[in-house]
Structure formats: structure tokens, C-alpha cells
Specification:
Layout (H helix, E strand, L loop, with lengths): L1 E3 L6 E3 L1 E4 L3 H10 L3 E4 L13 E4 L6 E5 L4 E5 L4 H8 L4 E3 L10 H6 L7 H4 L6 E7 L5 E4 L5 H7 L8 E11 L4 E8 L3 H10 L5 E6 L11 E8 L13 E2 L11 H13 L5 E7 H5 L5 E2 L10 E9 H18 L6 E6 L13 E9 L4 H14 L3 E2 L9 H7 L3 H10 L2 H4 L3 H6 L2
Parallel strand pairs: 3-5, 4-5, 15-17
Antiparallel strand pairs: 1-2, 6-7, 7-11, 8-11, 9-10, 9-11, 12-14, 12-16, 13-14, 13-19, 18-20, 18-21, 19-20
Helix pairs in contact: 9-10
Length: 432
């Protein structure tokens, strides 16, 4: 069968293995090499692609919920959306959530995902009490911040390269509404954008859409959305009707002119410099999930998301240079998301650090990778790094400079013989 990531690039032929019981998984692992766990296919690049995959999605039972602690025990194939469908109406929400709810728990841990509240709550691993991991020899170990700590730090953010996560216990947060009290701040340039982020840094959630094709004095203009849960006791959460993109758009549909037009309309729809809205969970946290197959907008050649983070002390200068480079190239992205981050954790390959991150979607086209190579140089010059979950082309040298614990991760992989058993196209490219 053929397999691709959410970016629809690359597309490879592969063999897929599923399991119902732990013993069946042990046989699969012991009888095969060069495998990678695969969840719901929502990672953008090649981190969950290989010629052989272990399909974890069917391993999706809810095991227990301790309401006194908000502690949920689930198997690793459970989707975040499935948790929300059950627990929002009971007054519980995810403590940390990325921008899509259609990822598995195993994938959330393997990417150590983060959300609009990293500056307050940190990465997903902060709400993980423990998980069970099957190692290359079939042995199952429990990992937490106090037990098998080395494996915990390597697996959270480890891109599936340490073994197969079987189940996890995660802490949910109590909420009193399905609504977010949102404030939207309209800025005119990057200086105003940074000032707004700092002004509202105590808000639980914050995220900005940024116009990456703006030029001159307007470089870095944005719409910053900040907010927190309402207290209106409305917890009526259910499925909504969704739009669907039924086929791949022609490649010429997304171009400099169409991106400029979208950016002008999106920025222009907000009239006031500061305005308030009341929006629901899906609108605030998961706007793109309202469109099925939105990845087809980028055409049959696919797309990649370029997400980098810079430390706070170099963020303004670095972002200004990167935004100028993108604007001059004409290869703009209408999905350009800027976020503020808190302190880094101790996990070996976790992406966040204290500073600012920008995520940009680009369609795969001639000259794109050359542009991204140039952006890599600016990122490294400013002591930043690239997010592996979104990556499909980073070089080994660029990757290594951004992740100071890479040798500790490699040593652990060798110690447990993980490097012989679990690999992805990405891990082979950057030689993890």
C-alpha cells in the first residue's frame, strides 16, 4: 500500500502491521526491523514514515478515569477528539493541546506537542503522569518523571524512535464552559506585535496570525488572539457539520497573488485595534479541523510546514530577518502562526524553548527547499531550532546544532538497540 503524511509529501510504498494484544505486538517487533509507530497520519513530514509501520490507531480503548484527580488512562491510539467528545460535556478539557484534535495520544507524547499556553503550562509531557512503553526486545516498562526517567525524557519528543507507547495516564483540566473569552489585538508591525505579546503574556492562551508577505514598515503585522475559558456553565459540546475539500487543488491556485489577497481580507476583517469575542473550543483551538482534507488546498505535490523557534533574546531580530526573506521570495504562507513559549523542559528532543516560534505552510514547488535552507542559516545564527514533527527536509548538520541533547538520545538508542529496530525516513536522514 501507499502511505503519506499530512503534507502529502513524500508518498512511499509500505507494509503495515496492526495488533490487538501486547503479545501480538511483541511478535511483530521481534520478527521485523526498520519499523516506526504510526498513529493518525497528522504529522506533516516523514517522522512517521518508513517501509514498515506499526499501526497504533486501532489500539484505542479508554481504560479508566479518576475524577478526583482528573486522571485519564487510555490506550495510545485514542484521538484527542475522542477525549473531547466524551469529557468536555462533563467539564474536563486537555491541559495541553496542539492545533488539531485529530492526533493520537501516542503521537502527542512522541512529538511532545505544545499549544497556545506553552508559556503557562509547557509541553504535553507536563500533563503525562506515566506511560507504558514496549522496547525492542518486547519488554514493557513504565515510564514517568520518577520511574525510568531516561526513557521518559527520550520518548517524550522522541518521534517514535524509542519503542511503541501502549497506554498513558494524562491529567485533564477542569472547565466550566465550552466557550473562550477571546480578545483580538490588531498590530501594525513586528514591534507592536512583540509589545502586544508581552502585554498579554499572563493570559492563559495566546496565538497570532501574522502576514508573512507584508513589507517595509508593516513587516510583522498580525492579529493576536488571547483568552481563557468562560464561566457560563455551557458545556454542550458536540459534532459540527464540516466542509470538505474533495480533490487536490491545481498547483497554480495557491500563488503570491492569492496569498496576498487572503492576507489582505483576513487582516482587514478586523476593524478595531482591540476587540472582544466569545468563541467555542473548536473555533479557538482547532480552526482548520472544521475543513476535512484541507491539506489538498496545496495541490498534488503536497506541502511542508516550516516551524522554527528562537530564544527570546534573538527573537525580534531573527524574525524580522526571516520575514524579510520570505516576503522578498514571494513564497508566502497564508497559514503563518506566531506563538510565545515558556521555559524548555529536560526531554532530549523536545522542540520548545523560552522565546517565539513561527510556523509557516509552503506548497512544495521549485526553489522552496533552497529558500528553507537560507532560513535555516538565519535560525541557527540566532540560536534556534526546527520542529521535527513538521520537518521533511532538514539536514543532519542543521538538526544537530539545534538539539544539544542529541548525543544522549543517540546513546540511549544504542544502549537499548532501538537504532536497529525503530527508524523513520526522518531518523535516517538526520542520523538520529
Amino acid at each position: 500500500m501507499k502511505l503519506q503524511s499530512w503534507g502529502n509529501y513524500p508518498i512511499i510504498k509500505n507494509e503495515s502491521f496492526s495488533f490487538n494484544q501486547e503479545e501480538a505486538l511483541k511478535k511483530i517487533i521481534c520478527n521485523h526491523n526498520e519499523m516506526i509507530p504510526y498513529g493518525n497520519g497528522r504529522s506533516y513530514g516523514d517522522s512517521a514514515l518508513n517501509k514498515k509501520i506499526i499501526n497504533v490507531r486501532p489500539h484505542n480503548f479508554f481504560l479508566n478515569f479518576d475524577e478526583s484527580k482528573g486522571l485519564l488512562h487510555i490506550q495510545s491510539g485514542v484521538l484527542l477528539s475522542e477525549i473531547l467528545n466524551i469529557f468536555v460535556s462533563r467539564g474536563w478539557f486537555l491541559k495541553v493541546t496542539p492545533g488539531t484534535k485529530f492526533i493520537t495520544i501516542g503521537g502527542a507524547i512522541a512529538s511532545d506537542v505544545h499549544g497556545k499556553n506553552h508559556h503557562i503550562e509547557g509541553c504535553f509531557s507536563e500533563c503525562v503522569e506515566e506511560f507504558n512503553l514496549m522496547l525492542p526486545d518486547g519488554k514493557i516498562v513504565t515510564c514517568s518523571k520518577t520511574e525510568n526517567v531516561e526513557l521518559f525524557r527520550a520518548t517524550c519528543g522522541g518521534m517514535g524512535l524509542t519503542g511503541v507507547i501502549l497506554d498513558a495516564k494524562i491529567i485533564l483540566k477542569k472547565i466550566n464552559s465550552k466557550h473562550i473569552d477571546q480578545t483580538t489585538i490588531k498590530t501594525k508591525n513586528l514591534k507592536e506585535t512583540f509589545e502586544a505579546f508581552e502585554k498579554y503574556k499572563d493570559k492563559q492562551y495566546s496565538v497570532a496570525w501574522i502576514d508573512c508577505l507584508a513589507k517595509g514598515d508593516t513587516i510583522g503585522k498580525c492579529l493576536l488572539m488571547v483568552g481563557d475559558f468562560d464561566d457560563d456553565r455551557d458545556l454542550s459540546y458536540g459534532l459540527k457539520k464540516k466542509l470538505n475539500i474533495p480533490f487536490n487543488f491545481p498547483s497554480f491556485a495557491l500563488n503570491t497573488l492569492s496569498v496576498k489577497a487572503f492576507n489582505w481580507l483576513y487582516y482587514g476583517k478586523v476593524r478595531k485595534l482591540v476587540s472582544k469575542q466569545k468563541v467555542d473550543i473548536d473555533t479557538f483551538f482547532y480552526p482548520l479541523d472544521a475543513i476535512d482534507n484541507w491539506n489538498r488546498i496545496y495541490g498534488k505535490n503536497g506541502f511542508t510546514q516550516y516551524q522554527f523557534i528562537l530564544p527570546k533574546e534573538t527573537s525580534f531580530k531573527g524574525l524580522e530577518e526571516i520575514l524579510k526573506s520570505i516576503s522578498n521570495s514571494g513564497k508566502g504562507s497564508f497559514l503563518a502562526v506566531l506563538k510565545l513559549y515558556g521555559k524548555a523542559n529536560e526531554n532530549y528532543l523536545s522542540f520548545p524553548m523560552e522565546g517565539y516560534s513561527l510556523a509557516l505552510d509552503f506548497k512544495i514547488e521549485k526553489g522552496l527547499f533552497e529558500l528553507l535552507d537560507e532560513l535555516d542559516k538565519i535560525v541557527l545564527k540566532n540560536k534556534g531550532r526546527i520542529y521535527l514533527t513538521k520537518d521533511v527536509r532538514i539536514s543532519k548538520a542543521t538538526f544537530e546544532q539545534g538539539y544539544p541533547f542529541i548525543n544522549a538520545f543517540r546513546n540511549l538508542r544504542e544502549k537499548y538497540k532501538m537504532n536497529k529496530k525503530f527508524n523513520s525516513l526522518q531518523s535516517k536522514r538526520v542520523e538520529i
